[in-house]
Amino acid sequence: MSETLSTAGWRAWLLSERPQSALQARLGQAWLSWNAFQRNRLAMLGLALILLLVLVAAFAPWISPYEPNVQNLRLRLQPPGAAHWLGTDELGRDILSRIIHGARITLYIVTLVVVIAAPIGLLVGTVAGYFGGWVDAVLMRLTDIFLAFPRLILALAFVAALGPGIDNAVIAIAITAWPAYARVARAETLTLRRSDFIAAVRIQGAGAFRIIGRHIMPLCLPSVIVRVTLDMAGIILTAAGLGFLGLGAQPPAPEWGAMISTGRAYLLDQWWVATIPGLAICLVSLGFNLLGDGLRDLLDPKRRGG
Amino acid sequence: MTERSLAAPPRLLGTRLTRRIRSLGGLLASLALTFLGLLCITFLIGRIIPIDPALAIVGDRAPAHVYERVREELGLNLPLWQQFFIYVGQVLRGDFGTSVLTGRPVLEDIARVFPATLELATLGILIGVIFGVPMGVVAAVHRDRWPDQLVRVIGLVGYSVPIFWLGLVGLLVFYAKLGWVGGSGRLDFFHEGIAPSVTGMILIDAAIAGEWDVFRNALHHIVLPAALLGYFSLAYISRMTRSLMLEQLNQEYITTARVKGVSEARVIWVHALRNILVPLITVVALSYASLLEGSVLTETVFAWPGLGRYLTNALLAADMAAVLGATIVVGLVFVGVNLLSDLLYRLVDPRAR
Amino acid sequence: MAALLNVDNLQVAFRGPRGEVPAVRGVSFSLGREKLGIVGESGSGKSTIGRAILRLLPDSARVTADRLTFEGQDLLGLSPRALRNLRGRHITMVMQDPRYSLNPVLPVGDQIAETLRVHGAGGRGRELYRKVLDILEAVQIRDPERVYRAYPHELSGGMGQRAMIAMMLIADPRLLIADEPTSALDVTVRRQILSILDDLVSRRGMGLILISHDLNLVAGFCDRVLILYAGRVVEEIEARNLHACRHPYSRGLLASLPRLEQPVGELATLQRDPAWLDGPVYRFGEEVSR
């Protein structure tokens, strides 16, 4: 009984209409957001899928039943069964183990692309938005040029020039990914630039780059994060597409797209070889999409408190 | 509250016309600039290839003076910016070089394969619009209830599935197991070459020639890849339609229509939909252009002899002239579609007239 | 005089993330063929009352009343079909800003004609066109044929609001709710719009509810005034007796108006008293305890 009372007390404190401190206000807001987010069952499902991906990638060597690259030609193209839950491929490798290890490659690609592209996009967008004028015109023209290209085709052209391989695929995807983030960051900066608190900071004598780095970038971060989350699926699909065309990760790496590509030859008789890696790709990108969708709803001011 | 007049300042026909021309000129200029940027990127991509083009021609055992001569013939000894200008000049003259793979000029190759892609993408976008727009509208009207969730999940799955994989599964199920559709390619072997090529689009060619057997066979082959592309554009179109509709349904003029006693169906399908038509044009144009992207992988899976397969074949053979030529054409289509949607926009929106 | 509209203990609450928020708390009034003003500050629930009568509130609103009838017909129990039949034909509403309340992509004339068309009244073709031109003339638009073909963005605010009034009056309704009909307009055209409204409403013998934040305007225009505070009618009074109002909130509103004949250095600011939320209310100068 006392426990329910104290949780009720916490709730009241968090939801207070007159918070006593900035911390209380922020926690209260976070609590409301989390509440709203939790009610979105699809978004929670997305979060669970991504946590699963991270866990599987982290513990791959311990949870995979076989070595991903050990061949056993006597056991090639086995259907799913007790020994090999998801069957084996044309070289007798265990598909489940390859999927589990492939999670690491997927996570590697996604992380690296985001680490490269997000800061570039954030920097270009905030600088363009803050300075305006010709700086803005030049930078935005540049992003428009990149956005004018269909992403996969530009990535293909880059990989063709750089040569196939997972790191070149990452670079190619990153080159095509940053303009979208720059757009988002710029839009956010434009609304922030005219706000009173930025004017106040400026009057205190802060330099432009200090204002951008300390005050504008942190505030742009939420929308960029949402955009990046929504983009993750696109990154995964582009990477898988490159792998499928033989331009991404090279054999024997257990990259999911490449696995579909080799399984294609056996599609009609051994359906599992091509189908199962595809399901893995679907689940992971669906996870990112559901999460990103939920986050966007949360950040959308039009939906807030409605 | 201060007065905010609804009326635009009185305009003379002359100034209005010049303003329109000027804004159109600005649009064209910015598109030209974008295209130049595209060329800049493809030029740079062509420069960073690790393969030395001159070496590729003469072979690595050629004497130095032969190598130098070929380098000069290719203009590789000139400063980079001069090379770029030469390159732009060539592209503007339609000279994309010669494909190593086919031995023909790249432009000729592209002209031959492009109709197949156009046919596929057009059917795909039709499917996407016919299903996507009503789905988005229904989702917006039933916001946060089950139809909305359903449309949302259908769309999110569309965003999440690798298109080449879904193509393979589709072939497995509808072709191999059920036999409902034709397999790879545009026609079965014994239907090929019957209808004379006029437009390069087999459905249209067959209809012109009155070869209905060929038409039916072509339809059999195109329906699966087109449905696939349609599904992907549907995902985008339905989502955009939903958010555009939600915005409109909150507008005051919707309340006005209800106050007049207009039925809910008419409020939605006439009053609100008319208002999203203009931005919807842009959405459809964008997804039409992005179908070109989807076609790269789809055509590979379905052995569809279009631009996408041409591009991937060139990629795998490291045929850079063909890769860059195809890339430029795709970029050009993107820019063109943008221009077209902008022109339509001006035509449809009374406020832009 | 038989009442057009009877409202008894109307309550509206909006469901929000922090629970239900009451917007209208126990409002009662009745209306005949007269002009009733509802005055209150923004957020007092005055617009919500108008929208509750026309059942325009979103699903997140919970509307209850002991009685909410129009000519004896229960408004809360109407089927969607009956409701459509009622709207536009019997009860209509003029909204605040013609820039938002007119559909931007349809010609104004078509929008006006639509009111008649959806009710199957007014005939077709030339006959309908004629009727629209007539009503445009009735709201003192000098060039009705041009306005018929015009899109909303081509009209000034005053013209837009006339078109709005025409649209809402063309089907001869018996009750018009005007929700801040002049607030978005230029001061110079406010008078004209009001006199057009006044003229048409009186001539057609309609009932009118004028919702406004402007006490002066309501006092000069209406027969009777309801003063709303936090979703509650704190005072109901004849407009001509307004100077003798008794509730401290009403007095406060009056005192904060500038007066030409008694210039003061500084206008009084309203001091709000939490006790008003459920304190005594006044009807025609008498204290009523609830």
UniProtKB/TrEMBL annotation, chain A:
It comes from the Bacteria. It is found in: Cell membrane. Residues 103-292 form the ABC transmembrane type-1 domain. Pfam families: BPD_transp_1, OppC_N. It is a multi-pass membrane protein. Belongs to the binding-protein-dependent transport system permease family. OppBC subfamily. It comes from Aquibaculum arenosum. This is ABC transporter permease.
Automatic annotation (TrEMBL), chain B:
The chain crosses the membrane at residues 21-45, 120-141, 153-176, 218-237, 276-297, 317-345. Belongs to the binding-protein-dependent transport system permease family. The keyword Disulfide bond does not apply. Signal peptide: none annotated. Its main location: membrane. InterPro entries: BPD_transp_1_N, MetI-like, MetI-like_sf. Coiled coil: none annotated. Keywords: Cell membrane, Membrane, Transmembrane, Transmembrane helix, Transport. Residues 114-345 form the ABC transmembrane type-1 domain. It is found in: Cell membrane. It is a multi-pass membrane protein. This is ABC transporter permease.
